[in-house]
Predict the structure.
Amino acid sequence: MKQNVYDYSFELRRIRSRRITFALSVVIFTFLFISLFLNFILFPVHVKSDSMESDIAKGSAVFITPLIRTPKRGDVYYISRMDNVTGTLFQKAANTIVKFVTLQKFYPFGYTDRMSGKPFLRRVLALPGDSIYMKDYVLYIKPKGEKLFLTEFELTQKAYNTNIYSVPAEWENIGVSGFMKEITLGNNEYFVLSDNRIECSDSRLWGPVKADRLKGRALLEYFPFNKIHLF
């Protein structure tokens, strides 16, 4: 019977043990570094809806940074789910591992087919203290301390496209309304809208979004490659 050299060589066993320990340490350190980077510096989001078309198409991928939590008017933000479900410690850990392996494309626990059960991208258009109303799917804003209402496009320095089209009369009670009475936002409240104003849900249905739900600002659409652009 052939004898394994490691059975009698202490030095070789020690070298093998060091190599295994080093390899495991590298894998663990790499996983932790990338996980921390993705959670606190920059992470990708795979867009699965047409809510932000035509600027952000369904199937595209966007980099989000959680470092910028205070939005400017017109910024696109990643917003946490609205149903307040957090999940167990095991589910959170499993989500972290699977997100890492699938490049943030899949979450095994905690998400549903309901819009309220998913995080989403929306454009921040009204800030705390603003008075707002909507007419024909266009938001009119009176900033805090000002006297006049201006359209969202006049107040927002960043150019963006909205998907607004004429709705047939028989659609009156279908989709999201293009009219809204005047309201004033409170402290730490933001009014967010989808760029696809006809079909998608946003603050018109949920109401203003609290600041702690804003999880990061969209920085870069990096896929598809022919539509790469900064926000």
Summary: The longest helix spans residues 10-40. The mean pLDDT is 83. The CA atoms of residues 110 and 231 lie 29 Å apart.
